[in-house]
Amino acid sequence: MAIPQHLTKIVATIGPASRSPNVFRRMVEAGVTVARLNFSHGSYADHAKTITMIREVSEEMDVPITILQDLQGPKIRVGELPPTGIKLIEGNSITLIPIDPNQTSDRHYADAITIDYPYVAEEATIGTQILLADGIFELKVTGLEGNAVYCEVIKGGILTSHKGVNFPSLNLRLPSMTEKDQQDLAFGLAQGVDWISLSFVRQAADVKRLKSLIAEHGKTDISIIAKIEKPQAIANLEEIIAVVDGIMVARGDLGVEMPPERVPMIQKHIIRRCNEVGIPVITATQMLESMIQNPRPTRAEASDVANAIMDGTDAVMLSGESAVGDYPVQAVEMMTRIASEVEKDASFINYPASRTDEVHAISEALHAISDVIDFRCIVAFTATGYTAILASKERLKLPIIALTPSINVYHRLNLVWGVKPLLLEQEVNSFEMVIQQVESYLIGRNLASQGDRVLIVGGIPMGVQGGTNFLKIHILS
Fold this sequence. Notes:
Blueprint (H helix, E strand, L loop, with lengths): L8 E5 L7 H10 L3 E5 L5 H18 L4 E5 L15 E3 L4 E6 L13 E4 L4 H4 L5 E4 L4 E9 L2 E8 L1 E3 L5 E2 L12 H13 L3 E4 L5 H13 L6 E6 L2 H5 L1 H5 L4 E5 H7 L5 H15 L3 E4 L14 H13 L3 E4 L1 H4 L4 H18 L12 H13 L6 E5 L4 H8 L6 E5 L2 H6 L6 E5 L7 H14 L8 E6 L11 E6 L2
Parallel strand pairs: 1-2, 1-16, 2-3, 3-12, 5-6, 12-13, 13-14, 14-15, 15-16, 17-18, 17-20, 18-19
Antiparallel strand pairs: 4-10, 5-9, 7-8, 7-11, 8-9, 20-21
Helix pairs in contact: 1-12, 10-12, 13-14
C-alpha cells in the first residue's frame, strides 16, 4: 500500500452507518486509521462483532487499524417526565430533587424535575449554574431546602426525559469510572483493544486508577487517552499530561461546561502542550457535523478541521458523521482532502527536546539533518513505539515508517502523526539486520526505490524503551 499523502490521522466512530465490512473497507481506503468504539451505545455482542470485522479488514488489506475503546464515564440525567416533556419558561421557577432510590420506579412530579444525583442540594449554592440537554437549557439556583434545589429558568424550552445535566462550577462527587465502565474495560481488554479513552477526567488520580485496573487484568501494553472535557481537567492539565499516553480535546462536553468562546484557545493550548512533550492528541466533536445529513461540509467546518491540523493535532475525529450519518465514506474523504491540502503549506513547529538525554538528542538530530538533506522517509525501528513517537514529535513533513516486531505496537502506532507502522517478522538484533530489513521492506512494498535516501533511527538491541542509540543516513541499493 502506498505511503499516504496526509500525515494527520483520521479517527472514525463506528456505528450503524459504518460497521458493515464493505463500508468500513471503503472508509479505510479513504483514509481512516483509527476506529473508535463508543461504549455509551451498543451491546457487547455488537462491539465484539465490530472488533472482529475491523481486525479482518485490517488483515485483508494488510494495513494497521487502531481500535480505540471510548468509556462512557458517569452521566447525570433528568428522570422521567411526561411523554411530551415539560415547558421551561424563562423567569419562572422550577425545583430539582434527587430521584428517590427507595421508589420502585422513577416517576415525574407536576412541579419538579428529578435527577439521578443524590448530592445536588449538598453541593449547590445560591447562584450555581445548571445546564440541561447539552447546555440548551439553563437554570440558576435561587434557594435550597432539604434535598430540594429551587431554580430560576434562565434559558427555556421543551425538556424531555433523560436529558443530561451539567454543573460547570461544581467538583462533583462522582468517580471517573462507573461500574459499567469497569465491566466495559474488562470486555475491551479481553477483546484486545489498542487504546482506551477515559471520560470525566479531572485529575491525574483518575488516570492512575484506570492504570491500576488495567494492571489487575494483567495488561501492560494498553495506552490511555484522557478526555479533556471538564474545567477541573484544564486546571490540572499538566499533572494529567504527565501520567497519560495521549489526550483527546473533547470539545462537545467542554463547550457545555465552559463558555464556548473559551474553547478555541483551550484547544490550541492543549495541542501545543501535547506537541511539546511528545504525546498524541486528538481533536474531537462536531468537526464535520453537517455531513451527518449533507454530502458536503460547511466552509466553517472545513476551516475548523484545517485549523486543528495547522495547530499540530495528531488526529481529527468523526463522531456522528461516521457512526450514524448518511455519508460516512464522504466524510472521511473530506477529512483526507483537507489534511492533504493543509499539510502542503503548513509550517509545523519543532519544539525543543522535553528531556536532556541521548534518546531525545538523537530525535532532535532528525530535524537538523533533514534540513540539509532530502530524504524519502524516516525509518524507525521500535519494539515499544517510543522511537517512532519521538520521531513524530519533530513534525517533519516526512512519513515515518515504523518497523516493529510487536503486533500490539503495530496497531497502536497508527494513531500517531506521520507514522506508518509495518510489522516485522522477527526482532532485529544487529546493525546488519537493520540494513537488510530496511532494503527488504521499503523496496519490497514499493514504499521507496533504489537510490532513495532514507534516515534510519533505532536501538540495538531492540526491546528496551528509551534505548534509541543510532542514527544512519542510508541510500537504498
